[in-house]
Every structure is written in C-alpha cells, then in structure tokens.
Design goal:
Distance between the termini of chain A: 36 Å
CATH architecture of the largest domain in chain B: Orthogonal Bundle
Distance between the termini of chain B: 60 Å
Order of helices and strands of chain A: EEEHEEHEHHHHEHEHEEHH
Largest sheet of chain B: 2 strands, antiparallel
Oligomer: heterodimer
Strand content of chain A: 15-25%
Number of domains of chain B: 2
Structural class of chain B: mainly alpha
Strand content of chain B: under 5%
Shape of chain A: globular
Helix content of chain B: over 70%
Strand order of the largest sheet of chain B: 1-2
Number of helices of chain A: 10
Shape of chain B: globular
Strand order of the largest sheet of chain A: 6-7-8-3-9-10
CATH class of the largest domain in chain B: Mainly Alpha
Structural class of chain A: alpha/beta
CATH architecture of the largest domain in chain A: 3-Layer(aba) Sandwich
CATH topology of the largest domain in chain A: Rossmann fold
Number of strands of chain A: 10
Mean pLDDT of chain B: 88
CATH topology of the largest domain in chain B: ABC transporter involved in vitamin B12 uptake, BtuC
CATH superfamily of the largest domain in chain A: P-loop containing nucleotide triphosphate hydrolases
Radius of gyration of chain B: 25 Å
Number of strands of chain B: 6
Low-confidence stretches of chain B: 1-8, 295-304
Chain lengths: ~280, ~625
C-alpha cells in the first residue's frame, strides 16, 4: 500500500500552560482534499505551523512524501514540495505582483542554484551576474509560468502584475498569496482560511478556484470556517476543538456529529438543533 | 602572580566597583527597557540624555553652586523634560510609519544632542567633583566611599519607586497595559500618548541621574561618553531580556561585575571587549536574555512593511550615462579641490553601496558597517607593509579578506531579526575596533599603521589627484553596475522578500541565512576595497579611522538616497560628503547637520530622494 502523502501522528504542541494541539493524527493522500474545521482557537493554525515547519511539535511525528520531516526547517519542507498560505496574508508588500509569484517559484530555480556544497552560494552569485543562456531560459520559463498562474485569477491579478503588492485590495492580496503558493508547484498545498474576510461573491469565486485545483489533481489541506464550502469541496474533514480531534471522516458525517455541532454552537441545550451550514 | 593578588587582595574593591558601575548600567538599562516596553523601540538617544544630565549637573554646580540635593532635582527635572521633548517632538509623529523609522530617529536625535553638547560645552573633558565628603569605610581589606553609597542608594530608591509606580498606581498599570498591547490598551481608554511621555520622562530622568553620578565617580565628563553609555545600557538590557524591566536591573549588575573582574584579570583596555563579547554570547545563546521567556513565532504582519512604501524614481539610462560621463570628464577642469572632495565622497559611496544592499535591500540594519572599512584598510595595509604586495594585489585581496571575515563575523547575526541585528552588528563593529586596538602584535595597536605605500599601478604611483579620482570613479561605477545587475535578477527579489517577511520567504524555500550571507559577502567586498584604497591614500590608519560615526553617516547617506537604491547610495554620499566640504563647514556643525538631515528625512521623506527599492 502506498503511504499517504502527509502523515501526522500524535502531534502535540504545548504553550505555557496551554495544549494548543493535542495528539492529532491526520492523513492526506495524493489527490485528496482534506479540511480542518473548528472554532477560533481550536488549534488549526498551530497545526499548520507544525506541519509546515514554522514550529516544532513537543511530541509526535510528521511524515511527508515518505520521509520524516518533523521539526524540519520551512525552507527544507518547501524544497520537498510543501507550500502554504497564511491566515492573514503575508505577501511581500514592496515587491511587484509578478515578483511575489516568482519568489514562490524559488525552489524551482535549478540552473542558477547549483547544488554544490560550500561554493554553491558563490557560484550562484556568479551566475546571477553573468547570466548564461541556460539561466536566462530558466528565468523566462518561470516568468511565463508565473503569468499563467496569475491568469487563473482572471483579470484580478494579471493586469496588475507590475504593481507593488501593497497597492492591491485585501481580496487580491489573498489571491496573490495563493498564486505565490501555486508557483512552487506543490505536491501538497496548505491553505489557511483562503476566504477569510471575503464577501459572498468573492468566496464563491474562491470556491470555484479551489474546486478547479482539486480537479486538476492538486492535493490540498484546507483550514476553513465557511462550512458550506468545506462540505462541498472536501473528501474528508477533521474537526478540532481545544486542540483535540472531536470528529473525523466524510463531510456529511462530521457535519452531523453532535460534538461538532456543540463545538460550533457551544451549548448542550442546542445539541438537537439543525446542523450548521 | 597577578591572579594571586586578585584572589587575596582587593577583590572586595573589584566587587564593589563592579556593583557600583553595574548600578549605573542598571539605571540606564531600566530606562531603555521601559521605553522598549511601551514604544517597541531601542532608544539610541538614551546615552545622549545621560550626557546631557551630567552636563546639567556640572553647569548647575559650576554656575549656580547648588548643593547636592538641588543638583539632583535640577538634573532629574531637566533630563525628564528632555525625554518628554524627544518623545513629543522627535518620535510621536512617526507612529504608523515604517518599523525602522523610530529607531533611525533616535540615532538622529542622539547625533544632534551630542553635537549640541559639544558646541555649547566644548569637546574637552570637564572635571565634575563629587559633592560628598570623601569618607571611606573600611570593610575587611576593601573600602566603600560615600559616593558608592549614594549610587547604591539612588539605584535602590529608583528600583523601589519604579516597582511601586508600576504596581500600585493607575498610570503604572496603564504603562504595563500599553507594554503588553498598545492597541488593546488604547481601546480600553488608556491614553497611550500620555503613557509614552511618562515613560520617556521617567527613563530619561534615570538616565540623566546616572550620567551625573558617573561624572562624579570618575570626576570627569565629556561629550563622547554618550555612545558608550548607550552601548552599555543596551548590553545590560539585552542580558536581562529586551524590554524586561527587572531583568535589566540584573543585567546591569552582571555587566558591571563582569567588566570589573575582567579588568582585574586582563587590564582596562579589554573592558569593552568583555561587554561586547558578553552581548554577542547572549544574543546567540539566549536572545531573550537570561531572565526572558522563550520566543514565539513572530506575529503575522497585517500591515506596515519594514521600509516605507514607495515607487522608486526610474532614472533614464541616458541620464545616468550622462552623469557618469560628466564625472569622468570632470578632471579636465582645473579644480583639484573639487576632485579631492569628490574622491572622498566616492570612497564613502563604496561603503554606502554596501550598506544600501545589506540594510536597504535585505533589511538588516547594520550599525557597525564601518568596521568593514577597517578590516579592508588593515588587510591591505598589512599585506603591503609586511608581505610587500603591490597595490593592485593587496587591494582586491583585502576585499576578499573583508568579504570572508565580515561574513564570518556577522554570521551570529544572520539568524536574528529586527532590533537584534542592529545591536549585534553594532557590537561586532565595536569588537573589530577593540581587537585592532589590542592585537598589538599584528596591528601595532594604538600606534596605528604608518607608511602605507601610495596607490600604484604597474609600478607607476598614482600621485595626481586626477588619477586617484579616476581610479575610485571606475571602481564605484563598476560595483554599482554589478549591484544593479544582481538586483534585477532572482537575487534581487529573493533579498527583498527576506526583508519584507522572512517567515513567508522561508516558507517558500528561501534559505534566508544563505542569501543574507551572500549580500553581506558581496557588500563587504566593496566596502573592504573602499577601506583598502582609503588606507593607501591616507598612508596612515589607526583603530579610530573608521569609527561608529562613519557607520551612522553611511546609514544617513543610504537613507538620503533611498534604502536599497544603488544610484541613491552614490547620490547620498556625494551630497553628504561634498556639500559640507564645499561650504567649508566646521566639523562639529557638519555632524550636527547630518543629524538634522537624518531627522528631517525620516519625518518628511522616509523613502529618500530617489525612493526605496
């Protein structure tokens, strides 16, 4: 049997006096879209940080593409094909839109970043100054690819490709964040609330985009609050509350799980109420 | 045996001395920590307040013949008012501007204050007699004087008062609330402006008093004491943990003791070396200080970028080419003084180009950049003097040595962020100077290097002003072009991504340390070459030739031109070096002007003349 692309086992992260993530297991198979839901403060973003190498778990392991990546630095994880977006958006404000996407493609720079130990950086500097044909060709193809990725967002980003990212609207910055992540050609894409702060039509647009990504075979791990979208897109759903897993499985089953309903509505008395969404 | 003497001899004196000086450091550090807490800012003007406090005390004793209690009241009031003025006039307007703006503003304020003190009170040291009867109490084999007791008393009273204030008064609560979360405090009705002013007043009062006490302790004050005080205060605060007030107390005492015992063991010229070695050690091993908590992930920036948002001015190629051509043809005019001035300006442009890359493009605000010139200058000078290498070999080799050594030295700072980088580079720069001073076997120590041969190419000495000018011009143009080319490729966007958001950049596979080191190495090469040529032109350099003032000046040039802007760095250097020269302004007014330029720029044109890139 092929092991899943991402395999999280018993991951726990404690902050002073608080267990933010408590013994979470999570699998994501190639081509799957798995969503993590839960109320604010449930530990979803912390879990993302643990998977993407921005934080280390106290206990537990993370395997990605068959290797143990627990506590690996984020740049190494990116090189292995893991990309993520951030909850509040962390685009590079003073970089142009296209440069933001090109930074996303950094790990795909091969020609100009020869994997030579010790002297590698110096060779890179030399190649960046000299720019032989192969280096120019690589930059050209990355640029073309970046434009193709911007085109996925219709005319939201492409016409603004030479503008600094700080001049974009909030929703466009979120889109750029996703474009940047896609430029890595990730094997697994982690999206932290891609529709946060978006209005209904923007959310619908995002839903179409994520659906298209999934259809194209992209493996996705999604944190999302908008349950309707989660239910429609996900293959499987993990529900968290207080750092714990409270339910996991097919969207329909998780949605009707009493523990999930209680976590979202917060009262036993409402346990019999109609499910959210 | 010296060690034995120490062991059985006046160890109590060393301890008392360490505790007393430590007390002073603690007073400085507490002020810095308070300010950092509420304003999220390392106040580089703190040492200047301390100096002003010392001079206030001196003036009041000399001219008004005040008794000690009155002197103290005058110093406390005056320093507190100065603190209020710094906050109100210098810093408040910068709320909401880019993150480095307030830090740079305090550097500018410090320059201005120091120069004003020099202008009004002469740069020479003044005696500041202790106003206490000179009694010494014998304890065992050591003694404690009345001044020691006064300093200890002031420290104790300040600490208790501060504790009471923060703990039991409403305003103290407001200070603590603001320190935890400025926005939340404001929403709960805390007048954060008032909190800021209060904190600056308290911190500055403590700073001023410590200046007075130190002056009395050594019976000497001079305008240059401010830089040292800022450094020691910052070091003490870092030992305790950035913004940790009780930690700052402990850090100050620990620093004082370390220095005192260090002097006892190795001699006083090593004093600062200990302080900075301790600083780097703390920064590397325990960046949150000895008493700090573990650092969490840096928060996701919602707004506010590191540097000011701007659209850089696009200079037409024809214009740049025209200016370069004009510069190349300039020696045809019979204006040797102008050429000499421009040569100096272009030499400093080599430093500015390096700094604009490191501080502007990669966002690592280096405050010790002039140390690279020193390394380059000494490397080339020693290669020429000791190994007999000709100029054409010693200069590029010095560049390579500077690149290697500079990158190696700055390595501990690569993984740091924001303020930590500035402090670390400041410390590393000081360490370079101190090593040059103390490594007499290699560098001739305080004597400096004399008789460095003049620049020569192919056996022909470049003696004319014209040929030296051309040499430096060619170098500046070459390095500027190379830097521009690097910035236009993948390195440019990668470097700038690290500046904008290191966490995000790393999440996309950018090995931040590698690219920071690359920028440092490339920049250090250029700066090293600049230092080397300077050494050959001057024929004499010593450990003070390339001092921190030069680092600050370079930063001003870079900001004037626009952070990260290559053409801007050259323009900034030419303007800042040649304008005062051409107007033949006296040196002290020059420094004052630099400080004012820096302040005005940060306030009204943070993106500089040509815009940040």
């Amino acid at each position: 049997m092929v092991p899943p692309l991402l395999q999280v086992r018993g991951v726990t992260r404690r902050f002073a006096g608080l267990v933010a993530v408590n013994a979470i297991d999570l699998d994501v198979a190639e081509g799957e879209l798995v969503s993590v839901i839960g109320p604010n403060g449930a530990g979803k973003s912390t879990l993302f940080n643990l998977i993407s190498g921005l934080d280390r778990p106290n206990v537990g392991t993370v395997h990605f593409a068959g290797q143990d990546v627990t506590g690996l630095r984020p740049e190494r994880l990116a090189a292995l094909g893991l990309a993520r977006t951030f909850q509040h958006g962390r685009v590079f404000g003073n970089l142009s839109v296209i440069d933001n996407v090109l930074v996303g493609a950094h790990v795909r720079l091969r020609c100009v970043r020869p994997a030579v130990p010790l002297l590698g950086p110096l060779i890179e500097l030399g190649l960046a100054a000299w720019r032989p044909a192969a280096v120019r060709a690589e930059e050209q193809s990355l640029r073309a690819d970046a434009e193709a990725i911007l085109a996925l967002f219709g005319d939201r980003l492409l016409p603004r490709r030479d503008q600094p990212a700080y001049s974009l609207s909030y929703a466009n910055r979120r889109r750029l964040e996703i474009a940047r992540a896609l430029a890595l050609h990730p094997r697994l894409l982690l999206m932290d609330e891609p529709t946060a702060g978006m209005n209904e039509s923007e959310t619908a647009e995002m839903q179409v985009l994520i659906g298209r990504l999934k259809a194209s075979g992209q493996t996705l791990l999604l944190i999302e609050h908008k349950l309707e979208m989660v239910m429609r897109l996900s293959d499987r759903v993990l529900a968290m509350d207080d750092g714990q897993r409270i339910a996991e499985g097919l969207p329909g089953r998780v949605r009707n799980d009493p523990a999930v309903i209680e976590a979202y509505l917060g009262h036993h008395a409402l346990g019999s109420a109609e499910p959210v969404a | 045996m010296m060690i034995n003497q120490l062991a059985f001899g006046p160890w109590l004196d060393y301890t008392v001395n360490g505790l007393i000086i430590g007390n002073i450091y603690a007073l400085l550090a507490v002020g810095l920590a308070l300010i950092f807490g509420v304003a999220n800012l390392i106040n580089f003007a703190h040492g200047s307040v301390y100096t002003v406090g010392a001079y206030l005390g001196w003036a009041s004793i000399t001219y008004l013949h005040t008794p000690l209690p009155v002197t103290l009241v005058i110093v406390i009031t005056g320093s507190a008012l100065l603190g209020v003025a710094i906050e109100r006039v210098g810093l408040r307007a910068l709320h909401g501007s880019s993150r480095i703006a307030p830090l740079l503003a305090t550097i500018g304020i410090s320059l201005v204050l120091d120069q004003l003190v020099q202008l009004f009170c002469s740069p020479d040291p003044r005696a500041l007699a202790s106003q206490l009867p000179d009694l010494r109490i014998q304890i065992g084999r050591g003694t404690i004087g009345t001044l020691d007791l006064l300093i200890a008393g002031v420290g104790l009273v300040s600490a208790t008062g501060l504790y009471g204030f923060l703990r039991y008064t409403k305003l103290g609560w407001a200070v603590r609330a603001t320190a935890q979360d400025q926005d939340a405090a404001r929403q709960m009705g805390v007048d954060t402006d008032r909190v800021n002013v209060t904190v600056f007043a308290i911190a500055s009062a403590l700073g001023g008093v410590s200046g007075l006490l130190v002056g009395m302790y050594y019976n000497s004050i001079d305008p240059n004491m401010s830089f040292d005080a800022t450094l020691k205060g910052v070091v003490a605060m870092m030992i305790g943990g950035l913004g940790n007030v009780p930690g700052a107390l402990g850090g100050g005492l620990l620093l004082g003791l370390t220095e005192s015992y260090g002097i006892a063991l190795f001699g006083s010229s090593y004093r600062n070396l200990f302080a900075f070695a301790l600083l780097i050690l703390i920064l590397v091993a325990a960046p949150n200080g000895l008493f700090g908590r573990r650092r969490d992930l840096p928060p996701e920036p919602m707004t506010g970028t590191f540097i000011a948002r701007s659209r850089p001015l696009r200079l037409p190629r024809a214009l740049v080419a025209g200016v370069v051509l004009a510069a190349a043809l300039l020696p045809l005019l019979p204006a040797p003084y102008l050429l000499q001035t421009l040569t100096t300006a272009l030499l400093s442009a080599l430093l500015a180009l390096s700094l604009t890359l490191v501080a502007g493009t990669v966002g690592q605000i280096s405050l010790g950049h002039a140390a690279l010139l020193a390394i380059g200058g000494y490397a080339s000078g020693l290669l020429a003097l000791d190994c007999g290498l000709p100029f054409v070999w010693s200069v590029p080799l010095a560049g390579v040595i500077t690149a290697l050594l500079g990158t190696l030295l700055v390595f501990p700072a690569l993984r740091m962020q924001g303020h930590y980088v500035s402090i670390a580079t400041l410390g590393i720069g000081e360490i370079v100077t101190l090593v040059i001073l103390n490594w007499t076997g290699l560098t001739q120590g305080a004597m400096g290097l004399t008789g460095i041969p003049a620049p020569a190419i192919g056996g022909i000495e470049l003696t004319s002003v014209r040929s030296v000018y051309w040499l430096v011009l060619v170098l500046v143009v070459a390095i500027a072009l190379l830097q521009t080319r690097l910035l236009s490729g993948h390195l440019g966007r990668t470097w700038r991504a690290i500046r904008e958001d290191e966490v995000a950049a790393r999440s996309y596979g950018v090995a931040a340390n590698r690219y920071k080191a690359l920028a440092f190495g490339f920049g250090a090469f250029g700066a090293g070459v600049g230092g080397a040529i300077t050494a050959h032109l001057y024929s004499y350099i010593d450990y003070r030739t390339f001092d921190t003032t030069l680092s600050i000046l370079a930063l001003t040039m870079v900001i004037l031109g626009g952070l990260g802007n290559v053409a801007g760095a050259v323009l900034g250097s030419v303007l800042l070096v040649s304008l005062p020269e051409l107007f033949r302004a006296a040196a002290e007014y020059r420094m004052l002007a630099y400080g004012l330029v820096l302040l005005v720029l940060i306030r009204y044109r943070p993106q500089g003349l040509l815009g940040t890139v």
